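Sequence, C-alpha cells quoted for completeness.
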Amino acid sequence: MDTETLVKLASTGNIRGVEEAWLTLVDSEVNPAQWQQHADVLEKLTKTGHAAEAESMATMAIEALTSSVEPSDVLATASQLLLKIKKSDPLRKTVADLYRKVYGDIEGLEALMTESGIEGGRPVRRAIRTLDVCLKLNEGTFLARRHEDGAARVESIDRSDWEIDFTTEDGPETLGAVELADNYMCAEDDDFFVMALFDTDRLELALKNDPSAVVISILRSNGKTTDSDELKRTLAPKHIAASSWTKWWTKARQGLRHSPHVTIEGRSPYFLTYDAAGTTLAEEVREQLSSSHEPLQDLKIAEAYVKATAQQKETLDPELLQLIRERILDRATRQMEHSGKLELLPYLASHKIEGILGDEEANKRLVELMAKLDDPVESILKVEIPSLWPAACVALEESHPQDLTAALERLLPHAPLDVAETLARHLVEHGHTQAHFAKLSDSILREPVQMNAGLLWIWKGSAIEAAQLDIPLMTVATKMFQALASIQRGDSISKELSRQIVQNTRDVLRAKKFDRFKQMLEEVQPGVAAALRTQIERLDNLGRAGDDMLNMIRKQFPQLVKSTPTLANWERDDIMYVTAKGYRHKQSEIDELLNVKMKQNAEAIGSAAAHGDLSENSEYKFALEERDLLRARLAQMQSEMAIATVMSQESVPTDHIGIGSSVVLVHEESGTKQEVTILSQWEADPSRKIYNYKTPVAQAILGSREGDTAPVEFFDPPGDYRVEKITATDIEA
C-alpha cells in the first residue's frame, strides 16, 4: 500500500487497518528513502490522537532497518520519523544512540549532544538541525545563510563548549552550536554566495560559461525556489550588467530546461523550483501522461520527449512511445464506439509516433484509413495541428485520386503555409489557372478568420506563377488585422485556432525582416498609413511585432508623428468619429460587397474563363476590371472601418460646436438663418444640411460657441454668421 493511501486510511480512524498495512511494509520494505516518505502516516496518526500507536510503528520500522541497512541510513530514517511524531522520549533516546553510533569518533560529540538537547530540553527539529550542521563542520567549511543572502567560512571550532569562529561579509563572528545552526547551513565551495564572497574569479567564470549552474546554486541556497525577478535582483547589476541581463537570462533558461533538477513554470516572472533528486525524462513523461486526457495532448508529450532526448543526448525509449501510441488508439476506439464517428486526429497522431518508431507500414495504414472516411476533406479540416497536415494530404491524394482537384481547393484556404504551397502546385498540375486562384482568393478574403491560413498564404505570396495574385497588400493586411481584432474581442473561436492565428500572423509579418510590410508602406498614401497605424495600435495580441511595425510607419511617414491627443477630435486624421447607425450601415455595405457583389464577380470570372482563349475574351477582361474596382472599394471601406470610433450621446458637446452638434446660424447682414448638423462622412447629406465634419463648411464653425461669429463662404448668402443656438443631435436615434 502506498503512502498516500495509508495517510487516507489513518485519517478515517481505522487504526487496525493502518497497523496491519504497516506490518506488511516492515516485512517487505528495506528502502530508507521510502520509509522517510512513510513518515507522513505517523504524522497523521499523531494529529488524530494516536501518538502511542505512531511511536510503536516507528520503533518497528527502525528495528527492521537496523538489521538490513547502514547505520547512517537508519539514522536518516529515524530522524524523519521522530520529526513527524515530535513528542516521544523513547524515540529521542533511539535517535541519540544512532548519532553516537554513526559519529562516535567525532571529538566533543557528547558535549554537542548535550548542547543540541536531542535527549530533552529543546524542540526536536532544532536539536536535529544543530547536530546535522555541526557534525559536518571543520576549519574551512563554507556556510550559507538560512534566512537571507550571504555566506561564511568556519575559521576555528572549540569542541569543548562548541563555540565556532567564522568569517562573514561583515567580518569575524562567533556563535554557539545551536545559534549557528539556526542561522546557517553547510554549503559547497561552488555555492553562489560562497563564490561571491570568497572566490570572485570562479564566480565570474561560471557566470560566463555556465549560467544555468549559477542559477541552480542560488536555488539550492534560497530554499529550492525563486523567480526570475528575484534572480535579477540578486545578480544585476552587481554581478551582471543590467544591459546584459536579458541575453544572460535567456542562455541560463535554455540550460535549465535541460536539467532534470529544475522545473520552470509561468512567465514574467518565471517560477523556478529545484529538486535535488531530479527525475528522468521517462519519469516526467509518465507523470505528464497521468494528467493527459486527449490524444492531442499525448502527441505533444511524445514530441516534447523526442526533442528533449535529442537535446540531452539520451536514448529514446521505444516502449514508452509505443505506450503513448496505444493510449491514443485506445481512446480513438472508445470514442468511435461511443459516437459512431471515425475521427482522423488520433490516427494522425498515432501515425506521427509510428514514423518516429520507424514503422514502415504506417503510411499504408493511414491511406487505408483515409479511404474509409465519408468526407476525408472535412476530417482533415478538423485537424488544428499544422504538423499533422502533410501526412494527411499525402494519404488523401493516394486514397481519393478521382476527386482530388475539388478536395485540394477546399483544403488550400485552411492549410499551413508550406502545405498550401504544395497544394497550389498540385492544382496547377491539374489545370488550375490564375483565374481559378483569383476566385479562390475572393472566398478567402470573405472569411479572414476561418480561412486565416489562406489569407497568410496570399500575404506571403506564392512562388508559383499561376498562383500569384494581384491583390493590394493593404487589402490583405486589413483582413489580417481584422481577424486579430476578432480574436481580441473574444469572438467565438476555439482557443487552439486563436493561438495559431496570432502566432502565425506574427511569424508571417516578421518574415524576412518585415519585407512584405515594408513593401506595402511604399505603396500607400499618408492617410491610409494613418489608418493602418490606428489598426495596429488597437491590437494587443501583435506583441513586439506591432511595436516594430509602428516604428516602420513613423520612419516612412514622419509627417504622421504629432501629438494627436492635444488636437480637437475633428482635427485628428487617425480617428473617424461616427454614429452607431452609420457604423452599422457601413458594415452592411461591406457585407454586401463581400458576400454578394464580389461573389457574383468571382462567378463571372470563372464563367468567362471557361469560354477559353482569355486574350480575346472581353467578358473575362471586364470581369477582372470589375474585380479590381470592387477590391479597391473594399480596401477603402475597410481602411475607414479601421479608424472608425462610435460616439456616445454623452460625447456630443453643447457648449461649443462639435461633432454631433445641431446649430442655428444667423447671417450678420441679412439675418438669414441656416440650421445645420455636423456628423461624419457616413451620415452626411448636404440636401438636408447634414455636413461631414471634415468639409470646409463644418471646419469653418467647429469649436465656435453661442454668440461667436465665423466666416462661411459656402452658404447663400456668404459672409459672417453668428452662432445663435447649439444643441446636441440625438445620435442614438
The longest helix spans residues 580-609. The mean pLDDT is 88.
